[in-house]
Structures are given as structure tokens and as C-alpha cells.
Amino acid sequence: MRLIIPIETVQWFETNYWLTSGDFIRFYVRYGGDDGIYPGFSLAATLEMPKGSLAVQAHISSYTFYMLETDSWYLGNRDLKITIVEDSITYTLL
Asked: Are 85 and 92 in contact (CB under 8 A)?
């Protein structure tokens, strides 16, 4: 299980989330929406220090992107690729 985040996606987060060195970006499961992976659920991102056990993390350009154990069911032991398509975050399970 890995987070795959291309540098273009990191740059998008820098611009749109006003990141500063050392920031933590959490990906979490929310009820509602449909990102095409699990109907009725979708992924979201927020700037947040970890509060619990990490299931997966990626350190890129002085930032830490992560998902907590409590949300890891969504990945089902697969990798998560996060890209930007038409200025929106797109999540793909590999």
C-alpha cells in the first residue's frame, strides 16, 4: 500500500492549500459523494497533523502526505495515486 503523488500534484497542493515546509496533508474517507471507487463514499484532503496510527505516508518536497489506519479500509491493500485533472483532485486505486 503506497501513496503515489506526482510532483505536479504536489505543486497543485502548494498553490491551493498554501503549504509551508513541514506541513501534513491527510487523505480521509468521508460519507457522501462518489469518486468512482466506493458508491456513497469519497476521499478528501485536509491540512492536519496526524492524530492516530498512520496506515501509509509519503514524504515529498518537505511535506508529509498520509492516511490514518481508520481510513485504510478504503484502499483494500492497493496503492492510491493522487493526480490533478482539470484543476480537481483525482484518486485512483492501483
From this structure: no
